[in-house]
From TrEMBL, chain A:
It catalyses: 2-phenylacetate + ATP + CoA = phenylacetyl-CoA + AMP + diphosphate. GO terms for biological process: phenylacetate catabolic process. Monomer. Keywords: Ligase, Nucleotide-binding, Phosphopantetheine, Phosphoprotein. It comes from the Bacteria. Residues 81-287 form the AMP-dependent synthetase/ligase domain. It comes from Anaerohalosphaera lusitana. This is Phenylacetate-coenzyme A ligase. InterPro entries: Adenylate-forming_Reductase (IPR051414), AMP-bd_C_sf (IPR045851), AMP-dep_Lig_C (IPR028154), AMP-dep_synth/lig_dom (IPR000873), ANL_N_sf (IPR042099), PA_CoA_ligase (IPR011880). Belongs to the phenylacetyl-CoA ligase family. Pathway: Aromatic compound metabolism; phenylacetate degradation. Its EC number is 6.2.1.30.
TrEMBL record, chain B:
SUPFAM superfamilies: ACT-like (SSF55021). This is ACT domain-containing protein. Residues 70-144 form the ACT domain.
Amino acid sequence: MQVPFWDERIETASRGDLEALQLERLKKVVDSAFKTPFYKKRLAKAGMSSSDDIKSLEDLKKIPFTTKDDLRKSFPKGLLACDMDEVNRIHSSSGTTGIPTVIYFSGEDVDTWTDLVARCVVCTGASKKDVFQNMMTYGLFTGGLGLHYGAEKAGMTVIPVSSGNTLRQVQIMQDFQTSVVHATPSYMLHIRTVLDENDISLKQLNLQKAFIGAEPHSENVRKKIEELYNIDAYNSYGLSEMNGPGLAFECVHKAGMHFWEDGYIVEIVDPETDENLEDGEPGEVIVTNLIRHATPLMRYRTRDLASILPGQCECGRTHRRLSRIKGRTDDMLIINGVNVFPSQIEEVIMKIPEVGTNYQICLDKQGALDRLTVQVEIYSKMFTGSAGELENLRHRIVEKLKGTITIKPLVKLHEPGFLPVYEGKAKRVIDERPKDEQ
Amino acid sequence: MTKQLNVFVENRPGRLESVTQSLLESNINVRAFAMQDRGDYGLLKLIVDKPQEAYLALSEKNFACALKDTLAISVPDKPGNLHKLTTVLAENDINVIDAYGFVLEPDHQGICCLEIENLKETNAPQIVSEAGFEVLSAEELSDL
Ligand SMILES: [Zn+2]
């Protein structure tokens, strides 16, 4: 299966050519970084005085990591590398702590970003023939606007509907025969139940593809979405500090997400030792943005966990691929001393046909011990009416989870529709353990 | 075969009420019911006048429910009759998964609803009839 390239020369460039381009661009980004108060200090401390200290890509390791906390502390202009006259757009996130982070874009920065997003869209086979309904939040969050501009540049018919109001989304899908949507995986699952509730059949829609991202999800969730809608679902990866969507995207082969190596340098490091890891080994994703100069950001700790897939993709693109995001270093749960990722629990649950698509993970204390409760809904279409089978089901979930995470959870079965639904990012973990004891 | 409607109901205030509300809205009459307690949830078993309609009404409200085949047997309300029935079942190696009964007319007629394991393979209706019990049809059950 071959689809056209957006920029064939660069997408199929040899490793040597890519690395030469990376080095050239990295030096320019270091130049920009020296114009910011934050990096001027940080790079001097690391013994660097100019981009001349970068002689090969190996020298990237001289540059210290930058963290989200650095961004917060630099608010509002500590990482601004140009005059405000040059700034064309601002994206900002408030975060949970209340201290915002901000990313400034020059006009050129917006253009280069948009071009990479267009590349993403095209590598899934989407084209100007498609009607694209963008259900990701617009505004300061980059997910909506990022895909909007890229899809528009790729020539698609873009419907900028933003997130929420599911009935209206469904109406628009019918009215304009939307063929491609962009949404969080949990919202895709939610819309499917709304279709059922309103007796809208898939035949009334023209849906063919979904771009899913903005929250970690398992392969089983992707498969579930593909089966529920009879469509292809493509994983998308981006983060607001690295422009937003367009950092990495799956091509038609759906075998990992190509990250555009002329735009970003991706490293994988061991989150505890900070050592660089080989392709194939899972660790924290570290990204250097090579194409943004108003807010340069180098060796940024994403706190996302993934690995670089070894080997070449069948599509012919030479840019390497990132595995799905397996979790975040900061959403790892420590339960009675054992490390557990919510994604591991999700993976188990989604394989069991008798449970619905919504679930919740609750943590509290029972005496001195942590107690893990996993709440799932019965999938009404698979319900047989037998009490024995329900007890079997509960037992099966407990055993499967125990086999994966080594902790024996409490499993609670609920009626369909009991658990809260989310139109944006789902809140799957409720941690009620006293903070000082964690 | 007579049908019983099994509904998954969480053990929280108001859940039973929302089942009966849905049944009321669809004008469905409940003939008999039993609740099987399973801790956090229960299984509500209903004998109704219009099982298929009741099933659709509850499904539409997103309840997890299922229609199960059940054996409704008329048992004369006299000492020893229930024993006679269970003896026949035991002699024929028929396993009862779930059962409940009610007296329809004191000293005269009782009804026994049985959920039988692998009902279709057991030939249970015939065995019970041959032992002198009346097995009620779906119509007879809803006309009680
Ligand atoms: Zn590919």
